[in-house]
User: Fold these one by one.
Assistant:
Number 1:
Amino acid sequence: MTYLQKIIDDVKLKDPDQPEFHQTAEEILSTIEPVLNNNSIYVKSKVIERLVEPERQIIFRVPWVDKNGELQINRGFRVQHSSAIGPYKGGLRFHPSVNLGIIKFLAFEQTFKNALTGLSIGGGKGGSDFNPRGKSDLEIMNFCQSFMTELYRHIGQFIDIPAGDMGVGEREIGYLYGQYKRISNTFEAGTLTGKGISYGGSLARKEATGYGVLYFVNSMINYHGHSLTGKKVIISGSGNVALYSCKKAVELGAKVIAMSDSDGYIYDENGIDFKTMHNIKEIQRKRISEYVNYFPKATYTKGRGIWNIKCDIAFPCATQNDIDVNDAQALIDNGCFAVGEGANMPTTNAAIKLLLDNNILLAPAKAANAGGVATSALEMAQNSARLSWTFEEVDSKLKEIMKHILK
Ligand code: NDP
């Protein structure tokens, strides 16, 4: 048995109920053998054994009161994975599927992604099994305040800087930061990123992950002699990453023909209208199925199946394991030539192998979606300097960072 296989086996033995963490550990460890062969010091100093064990894992109770006055109890998590090159940095996910294994996988991936940006940020991730779907603003506020009442003691601008992820956007960051400010009695803006512009947020942060994915994929396909002009694109999800991927894809000349949520997907052969989709999802906070009320020629289909639509480029921007081997085969059969991972670990390891074996260009998540965290670091820089940069300044820095990552 090889050295790396033994580490993977130990990881599985120690935490047998964490399949997503096993998956990411297997994916990363299976690629680093050449590095270890040339650097025996890494083996001697047990760098890999350290990497698969987070520095700290925090689990806490989150009691909160719902709109009927009933007490609800959720579980909160923060995994502080690595502070080797800077303070822990990574988002918070509110989704019913959240458990320790999922937060551990995300924190592990975050450490590599953050290092790739070239900025001095370590890796962490957190969240809760709280389901924000259908909750009122008041319930969201109650939950966020209770969540922060415990989390605040573990974070800080030089310790650990959370941000958004699934189910956590500008509204939630606002409630979280407000509570942090009250408890800590400081205006320490650099403790959370993804804030509103009026209290320390950065222009272009909201757009950064999606825009970064498109900058990365555009450069990658240009290098291989392709362009986005006229390309048919599918984007899974319709949240923060998906929406701003859609906006930038259209700006760069592509046509976005399908998008989804966890209930189903929209197909519009004329190209999805970003403004309408943004209004439905971000302003009205409704389901994607509403889109056909504005564009009757578009169709809505319940359930999975978005990857069976013929396209040139696929952007999985929803959640982990969105593209399995069957989906990958459908993409290949339909002539898709590139996949840009906007979500974290959206492609199973078997599907990645199939795509690569068929010479599909693959922009891996740890590189392609790093624009979000990189721009969070730019938000921290502005907070430290007590300055606000223009949208164009931040966007041009984001472009440079994505270029640097691709190189
Ligand atoms: P959001 O909560 O804003 O959006 C998530 C979207 O994915 C929603 O449309 C949701 O639909 C959909 N979705 C969730 N589960 C499924 C499913 N099983 N099938 C189809 N669609 C699904 O999250 P983000 O856009 O912020 O995050 C999306 C991904 O990008 C995640 O993997 C996240 O970790 C990653 N990411 C996010 C960054 C950021 O800056 N926000 C940075 C880097 C990575 P529904 O409303 O039905 O749940």
Number 2:
Amino acid sequence: MKKYFLFLVVLSLFISATAQKFDQLAKTPPMGWNSWNKFHCDVSEALIMQTADALVSTGMKDAGYEYIVIDDCWQVSRDENGEIECDKERFPNGMKYVADYVHSKGLKFGIYSSAGTVTCQRRPGGFGHEYQDARTYARYGVDYLKYDWCGSTTQDAKSSYTNMSNALYAAGRPIVFSICEWGSNKPWEWAANVGHLWRTTGDISDNWNSMINIFEKQKELARYAGPGKWNDPDMLEVGNGGMTTEEYRTHFSLWCMLASPLMAGNDLQNMTPETKSILLNKEMIAIDQDTLGRQATCYRDNGDYQIWVKTLSNNEKAVCLLNKSDEKKSVLVDFSLLASIRSGGRGFGGPPPAAPAGGSGIPGIPGAQGMPGAQGTAAGQRAQGAGAPAAGQGMPGVPGGMGTGGQRGFTAMTLEDYKVRDVWEHKDLVLKESSMYVEMLPHSVKVYRFIRK
Ligand code: GLA
């Protein structure tokens, strides 16, 4: 009897320290819209309802965007019972009314709070009200909660987020839990059972440097992502005006390669054709939403020029060439080599391989030596030919065993197994040779999907 009692005590301690989350949610990276990047505190019932309309009328809903998330500033106070109160001037009919409208469009509704005493805009935070707020959100009809880290002072991150996760679970309504503590406490190491996505960095700004710096920080995190547990490099800036169309295309492509949540952050009611063509590129979205849920790894890093690979289901893959430099580049791409490599395996998500010392130069690409898929001369590449053995030539010791064909569960593939699709040109490549020169604009990408024949 005593033993049984002890067992119960230990069990209850274990349960209270362990998070329970809704397991069947966010099996692919969540997609939707969030008010913050464009509207900051200027949120209102009208904006949210009109944005829900626009999500449908622009075709974004059909493309997969489903969550409409109101970020900071919808809340102003707590009443005498501690109940959170919305800004009555901006949301005259309350939050349930807005949620009902969003649901009536076949969409899902998201809201924002913070684990601390205040939000980042100094509105009331959730600290000490977790179970109460979770019940309120369930009553509103919330489907997604973004939970920030402002006002948190000395709180422990893991236990704070676990507490809210448990509160949401106890409230009984399946809610995607989006952890937003900016990567400060390495949530990728502990949040897989707590939330469905976690921010990995500080806030994005609408400019190239901010975007590309955040992208670089995702390199080591690939191993932590998968169905129901995503690294979140922050919301999209596409269409907000601070980057060129080319840069926005790069931003969107990189986020899709990372299997990132795709939360549009622009004004959906006023989109240029260019913005639409980016946010609505269904071939790119399909790469993000692939059910295998793999985050791309950096296959080769030559500084300004990188090659990223995302393994897709059905032994397919997406390959992204990235020109980070301010100049045009002409790169010689060996498609037969790219056909044979994959991300994952040993060293998955770890540091990318260094360029082999003394690698052969590429004509016309300063400092871009020894790139796989871009080695040597065109003649040398031709000799390799399509259907060359899947050995990663010139890449001894490449972590991840990429191109070795010897990984468990990995079928060695050759170029003959695939057709190669240019995901932005929306065309299959006609490859006369297994290698070809590809012209790349500054700050641009090329994304190829290797589709099984
Ligand atoms: C933090 C978050 C942002 C946004 C603002 C709102 O900075 O990281 O994404 O939610 O707060 O105040």
